Amino acid sequence: MGKIIFYEGRNFQGRHWECNSDCMDTFRHFNCCNSIRVSGGHWVAYEKPYYMGYQYILSPGDYPDYRCWMGFNNCVRSCQMFPPYRGSYKMRIYNRPDMTGHTMEFMDDCPNVHERFRFRDIYSCNIMEGYWIFYEHPNYRGRQYFLRPGEYRACGDWGCHNPMVGSFRRMRTMM
């Protein structure tokens, strides 16, 4: 069973709230979030209610300050737990919307999309197997985007405002 604890203060201080299921609006539970403890499961925390805004991928562990989870600020307004996955990983990326243009298939992590795909922009993708995380910059830095299996016909479908993806990796869960 998964559990995530949100703290208003840094270093797990102040008012806190424990959660063990998806929550589309955390506002009634806490005002701000400066530290998080994940004691079970893997989670995606969102900056805005209803699973919108910046996404933060959280594995079991302690995050004593919002910068530790690559947070842009101390605002977390919704969260989702995602189930463990032990299968294979497979996706196709495209340099044009609606899964057109040049394509490349991946089954492993990619620290620099431009070096492997030869294009800077990913406009669409098809996640065929597994969970993936897209990062705004190479070497797994910048904004994060969590993708479940399915078709993403435009970068806005995964929450991005521009098609620039610098790196991506498989979201592997250890159980």
From TrEMBL:
Domain Beta/gamma crystallin 'Greek key': residue ranges: 2-40, 41-83, 130-172
Molecular function terms from GO: structural constituent of eye lens
Pfam families linked to this entry: Crystall
Alphabetically ordered keywords of this record: Eye lens protein, Repeat
Keyword Repeat assigned: yes
Stored InterPro entries: Beta/Gamma-Crystallin, Beta/gamma_crystallin, G_crystallin-like
Keyword set includes Repeat: yes
GO BP of this protein: lens development in camera-type eye; visual perception
Signal sequence range: none
PANTHER family linked: BETA/GAMMA CRYSTALLIN, CRYSTALLIN, GAMMA MX,-LIKE 2-RELATED
Function: Crystallins are the dominant structural components of the vertebrate eye lens.
Family recorded in the similarity comment: Belongs to the beta/gamma-crystallin family.
Name used for this protein in its record: Crystallin, gamma MX, like 2
Lineage: Eukaryota, Metazoa, Chordata, Craniata, Vertebrata
